C-alpha cells in the first residue's frame, strides 16, 4: 500500500469509527480519559493498518479495551464510570418525570449495581450495537461463551431492576466492593 | 414482568457517550497517528521481510554488541576515545555531507546493525531493571537491482539486560531467562535465547517477473486513469536510486515538525538505502537546515562507543506509555560515519515507569556500513 492510500484508508477508518470507539471508552472509563485512549487506539490502528480484519469495529474496540486494561487502574476506571452513571441516571432531576425517564434512570441504576464484567457484556450489545459474535471478539471469547455470559448478565440486570432502587451513591460503593474481589 | 430489559437498556443509552464534533481533535489524532515513525520504518523497506519479527536485541546486549563490533568487518567505525566536540549540529551535518559525497559507490550498500527495544521488568521500584529485545540485520542493497540480488540476513538476538547496573539487578532478581512484558498494548514474552540467521533474497529474475507483472497490470488498467501499479512501475523504471532521494524529501516534508520524526526518517534513509553518494550528501545538507536539531557534544551509543550526538526535541512515545523520549543520532567523531541511533528516556510513564532519565529506550547500533564490491555474506 502506498503512503497516500494508507493515509486515505486510515482517515476513512477514523471518520467512520472514531465516535464508536469514543463511546465505548466513555462507557468503560468515563469522559476524562476518553480522548486520550481513543487517540491511542487509532495510533495502534495506523501502525497495524495492514492487519486490521474485516470486522474493524470489533478489532478497534479490542485495542481500546487492551489499552484501558493495561494502562489504567481498574478501580479508578470504575470509579469514573460510576460517577458518569450517577449523572446519567440522575437525568430525571432535570424536571422531566415521564415514565420513560423513570425507567431509564431505573435501568441505569441497576446497571451501576452490576459488576464491571456484566456491564461490559451488556453494553457492548445494548449501547454499542455489536452482535454477540462481534462482542465476543472484543472481549476475546467464543460466541457461545459470550451468549451464556450475556444471558446471565441479563438475568442479573433484571433482578437488580426489580430490587428497590438504591441511591446512586450507594450503588457505586456496592460496585466497588464487588470489584475488589 | 415481560419487558425486555435489553431493549430498555438500549433506550437508556446516554447521549453523551457520543463525542462532540471536534475538528481540532480530528486533525490532531490523524496527524499524531500518521506522523508515527514506526510505520515509516517498515514502509521504508517493503521488500525486506526477514521473518524474525520486529523487536530488538541483546544478551547482555552490551557485551554481545561489543564483541560483534570488534569481530566485524574492517569498516566498523570505531571510536575508542572521546574528543571534545564543540561543533554545532549544522557544522557536524555539513561535515558529514562532505564525507558522504566523497565515498565512491560500489556494487552494494551494506549495513549491518543490531536494533533493540527496552522493557521495564520487576516493577518501577529499586529491584526493577530494563531488558532488551534485539535483532541483528545485515542488509545488502545492490546499486543495480537488475544485476545483483537484494539480500538481507537477520537473526533474533537473546534478550537480556544491557547495562552493568541492570545485569546486577537481573542477577539479584534470580537471573531469570524469560520475561513477560507489554509491547504496543499487547503481551510479549522475551527469552534469553536467540534464533539462527534467516536470509531473505530477491534475485534480479524475481524483480524482472514482478516488473513484468506490473507492466501487464498497468497496461490492463483503463487508459487515462493513473493508478497505483503504474505509479510504482514508473518509480522502478526510472531507477529506484534516483526515486529514492525524491521519496525521502517527500517523507521528510510529511513527517511531523519539531525535528523528531524528521531525524528518524533521515536516519532510516541514510542507513538503509543505496542512493548515490551525492544524494546522501544532499540528505545530510537537508538535515543541516532543519530547525530543532542540535548537537549534544560527546555521547555514548548503546554499545558504549563514544560519538557526536545530534538530537531533536523530546516527544512522547505513542505506545500508550506517554514516556517522553529524546531521539539521538550518533556519528563517529572524525569520520562522521553513522554509529547508531537511540531513544533516550526523559521522563518515563505507563509501563515504562521506573526507567530513569537517560535510560536507552530503544536503539540501533551500526556494526558495519558503507559501499562494498563484495558479494552478500555475513560473518
List the quaternary state of the chains. heterodimer
- Poorly predicted parts of chain B: 38-84
Number of helices of chain B: 11
Distance between the termini of chain A: 48 Å
Mean pLDDT of chain B: 79
What is the tally of helical segments of chain A? 9
Structural class of the secondary elements of chain A?
mainly alpha
Characterize the biggest β-sheet of chain A.
none
C-alpha geometry of chain A: globular
Written account of the structure:
The complex is a heterodimer of chains A (181) and B (379). In chain A, 76% of the residues lie in helices and 0% in strands. With 181 residues, chain A is mostly helical. Chain A is globular. Chain A starts with a helix and ends with a helix. Residues 92-97 and 165-181 of chain A have low confidence and may be disordered. Chain B has 379 residues and is an alpha+beta fold. Helix content of chain B is 34%, strand content 28%. Chain B contains eleven helices and eleven strands. In chain B, the strands form two sheets. In chain B, strands 6-3-2-1-11-10-9-8-7 form a nine-stranded antiparallel beta sheet, sandwiched between helices. Chain B is globular. The model of chain B is unreliable at 38-84 (pLDDT under 50). The chains are: A mainly alpha (181), B alpha+beta (379). Chain A: This is DNA-directed RNA polymerase sigma-70 factor. Chain A: It comes from Actinoallomurus vinaceus. Chain A: Residues 13-77 form the RNA polymerase sigma-70 region domain. Chain A: Pfam families: Sigma70_r2 (PF04542), Sigma70_r4_2 (PF08281). Chain A: Residues 161-181 are annotated as: Disordered.
Amino acid at each position: 500500500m502506498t503512503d497516500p492510500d494508507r493515509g486515505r484508508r486510515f482517515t476513512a477508518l477514523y471518520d467512520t469509527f472514531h465516535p464508536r470507539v469514543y463511546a465505548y471508552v466513555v462507557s468503560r472509563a468515563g469522559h476524562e480519559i476518553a480522548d486520550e485512549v481513543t487517540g491511542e487506539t487509532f495510533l495502534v490502528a495506523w501502525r497495524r493498518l495492514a492487519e486490521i480484519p474485516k470486522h474493524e469495529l470489533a478489532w478497534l474496540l479490542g485495542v481500546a479495551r487492551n489499552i484501558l486494561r493495561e494502562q489504567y487502574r481498574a478501580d479508578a476506571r470504575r470509579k469514573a464510570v460510576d460517577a458518569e452513571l450517577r449523572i446519567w441516571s440522575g437525568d430525571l432531576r432535570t424536571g422531566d418525570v415521564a415514565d420513560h425517564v423513570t425507567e431509564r434512570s431505573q435501568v441505569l441504576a441497576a446497571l451501576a449495581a452490576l459488576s464491571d464484567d456484566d456491564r461490559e457484556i451488556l453494553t457492548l450489545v445494548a449501547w454499542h450495537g455489536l452482535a454477540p459474535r462481534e462482542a465476543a471478539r472484543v472481549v476475546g471469547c467464543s460466541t457461545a461463551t459470550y451468549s451464556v455470559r450475556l444471558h446471565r448478565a441479563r438475568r442479573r440486570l433484571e433482578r437488580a431492576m426489580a430490587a428497590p432502587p438504591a441511591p446512586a451513591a450507594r450503588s457505586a460503593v456496592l460496585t466497588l466492593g464487588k470489584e475488589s474481589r | 414482568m415481560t419487558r425486555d430489559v435489553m431493549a430498555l437498556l438500549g433506550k437508556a443509552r446516554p447521549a453523551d457517550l457520543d463525542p462532540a464534533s471536534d475538528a481540532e481533535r480530528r486533525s490532531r489524532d490523524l496527524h499524531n497517528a500518521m506522523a508515527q515513525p514506526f510505520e515509516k520504518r517498515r514502509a521504508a523497506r517493503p521488500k525486506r521481510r526477514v521473518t524474525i519479527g520486529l523487536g530488538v536485541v541483546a544478551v547482555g546486549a552490551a557485551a554481545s554488541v561489543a564483541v560483534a563490533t570488534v569481530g566485524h568487518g574492517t569498516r566498523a567505525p570505531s571510536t575508542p576515545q572521546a574528543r571534545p566536540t564543540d561543533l554545532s549540529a549544522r557544522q557536524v551535518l555539513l561535515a558529514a555531507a562532505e564525507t558522504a559525497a566523497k565515498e565512491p559507490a560500489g556494487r552494494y550498500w551494506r549495513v549491518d546493525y543490531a536494533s533493540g527495544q527496552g522493557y521495564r521488568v520487576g516493577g518501577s521500584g529499586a529491584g526493577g531493571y530494563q531488558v532488551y529485545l534485539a535483532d541483528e540485520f545485515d542488509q545488502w542493497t545492490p546499486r543495480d537491482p537488475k544485476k545483483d540480488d537484494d539480500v538481507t540476513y537477520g537473526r533474533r538476538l537473546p534478550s537480556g539486560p544491557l547495562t552493568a547496573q541492570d545485569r546486577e539487578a537481573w542477577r539479584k532478581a534470580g537471573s531469570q531467562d524469560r520475561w513477560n512484558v507489554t509491547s504496543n498494548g499487547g503481551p510479549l514474552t522475551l527469552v534469553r535465547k536467540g534464533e539462527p540467521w534467516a536470509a531473505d533474497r530477491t534475485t534480479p529474475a524475481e524483480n524482472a517477473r514482478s516488473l513484468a507483472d506490473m507492466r501487464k497490470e498497468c497496461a490492463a488498467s483503463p487508459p487515462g486513469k493513473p493508478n497505483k501499479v503504474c505509479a510504482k512501475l514508473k518509480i522502478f523504471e526510472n531507477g529506484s536510486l534516483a526515486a529514492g532521494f525524491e521519496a525521502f524529501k517527500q517523507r521528510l516534508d510529511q513527517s511531523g515538525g519539531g525535528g523528531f520524526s524528521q531525524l528518524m526518517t533521515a536516519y532510516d534513509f541514510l542507513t538503509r538505502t543505496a542512493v548515490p553518494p551525492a544524494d546522501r550528501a544532499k540528505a545530510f545538507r537537508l538535515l543541516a537546515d532543519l530547525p530543532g536539531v542540535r548537537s549534544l557534544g560527546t555521547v555514548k551509543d548503546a554499545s558504549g562507543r563514544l560519538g557526536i550526538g545530534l538530537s531533536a526535541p523530546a516527544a512522547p512515545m505513542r505506545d500508550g506509555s506517554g514516556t517522553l523520549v529524546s531521539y539521538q543520532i550518533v556519528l563517529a567523531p572524525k569520520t562522521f560515519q553513522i554509529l547508531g541511533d537511540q531513544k533516550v528516556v526523559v521522563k518515563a510513564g505507563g509501563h515504562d515507569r521506573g526507567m530513569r532519565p537517560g535510560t536507552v529506550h530503544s536503539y540501533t547500533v551500526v556494526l558495519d556500513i558503507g559501499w562494498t564490491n563484495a558479494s552478500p555474506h555475513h560473518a
